[in-house]
Amino acid sequence: MAKFVFKMQSILNIKLKLEDQAKIAFGQESAKLKKEEEVLQGLIMQRGMYERRAVELVKGTISLRDIRENKQSIDIMKSRIRAQMMVVRAAEKRVEAARIRLNEVMIERKTFEKLREHAFEEFRQEVAYEENQAVNELVSYTYHGTAE
Prior knowledge:
Elements: H1 9-59, H2 64-147
Helix pairs in contact: 1-2
């Protein structure tokens, strides 16, 4: 029996490795994005805490020093939140780029797998044809051999 050999198997293997690498990169970028989003949520919660404290400071005995410090803390948190939002947006862009790269690599791999499937189907048809020819020759030989 003939053995199927895909001429572009090495390229397909490379495409599979590239896809694995792209999946890993996508996973890493997604994890970084999640971490940055968690940092942003922490900053937002901290700002909320400062804002609640500001309300409490105004309700009680008014201490200008405490109110100013709290206001500065709120302003600092707003700046840090804006900066963190930029970091999150950059991480989102990296995740999107990694997703696009992963899609491209997957399409390339699937293309080579389709080529492999077509080549295998042609191989099967050739083998079936050769087997059919061998059977026909055997039948023809037996028929002509017994007729004489």
